[in-house]
Backbone:
């Protein structure tokens, strides 16, 4: 393996690890990401860390403030509403194309992705207010597979970015949705069934309802923007 390839592999590994840590709440919204501390944590050079952070800025998972450094983005309910609507509309369009263009291989892979999701533990045994990292990954993989057959890379990339941004609010959702009585597994089974039946209209409706339930739970939980920016749990948690 050439030195350039090794460097690219290391850079991607660090970027992926940092992305996972941000999405899983290692740092609170608004926290500064110190190069020295990150270099020590990930056991790599500050150059690799800076490159990874710069890439994550492009993904909107890190905020670069001129002359101040890199930060975890702060959160706002207004932004959450906009992200949810854009994500919903994008995935509604994408699932329609995927259902139209998807072949038998796509159906098989979609069933496999759903099987993994169903068999992955949902809540963390050590903190039942939080979703497990494995479930979050399986959840994103299932929704990504739903859209994969649409054949529009730009749309797939957009939906992936919006999925990541939505997951930044995961701690709100995890706490807030404990009390809704929703059956998330049933929601996914219904989305899968509609996709396999090639019913784009129903699949689109179910995806919108799926995301809207989570959004409504967060909005009704009593959390405000000030609390969110400090990573606080909802008042009724």
Residues:
């Amino acid at each position: 393996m050439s030195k350039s390839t090794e460097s690219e592999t290391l850079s991607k590994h660090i970027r992926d690890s940092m992305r996972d840590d941000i999405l899983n709440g290692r740092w609170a919204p608004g926290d500064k990401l110190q190069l020295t501390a990150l270099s020590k944590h990930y056991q790599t050079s500050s150059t690799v860390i800076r490159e990874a952070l710069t890439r994550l800025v492009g993904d909107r998972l890190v905020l670069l403030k001129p002359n101040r450094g890199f930060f975890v983005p702060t959160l706002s309910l207004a932004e959450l509403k906009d992200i949810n609507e854009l994500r919903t509309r994008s995935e509604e369009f994408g699932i329609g194309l995927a259902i139209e263009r998807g072949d038998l291989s796509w159906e098989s892979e979609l069933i496999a992705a759903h099987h993994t999701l169903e068999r992955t533990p949902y809540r963390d045994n050590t903190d039942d207010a939080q979703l497990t990292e494995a479930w979050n990954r399986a959840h994103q993989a299932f929704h990504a597979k739903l859209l994969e057959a649409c054949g529009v890379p730009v749309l797939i990339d957009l939906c992936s970015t919006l999925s990541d941004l939505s997951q930044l609010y995961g701690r709100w959702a995890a706490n807030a949705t404990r009390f809704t009585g929703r059956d998330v597994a049933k929601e996914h089974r219904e989305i899968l069934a509609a996709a396999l039946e090639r019913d784009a209209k129903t699949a689109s409706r179910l995806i919108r309802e799926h995301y809207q339930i989570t959004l409504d739970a967060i909005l009704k939980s009593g959390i405000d923007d000030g609390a969110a920016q400090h990573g606080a749990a909802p008042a009724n948690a």
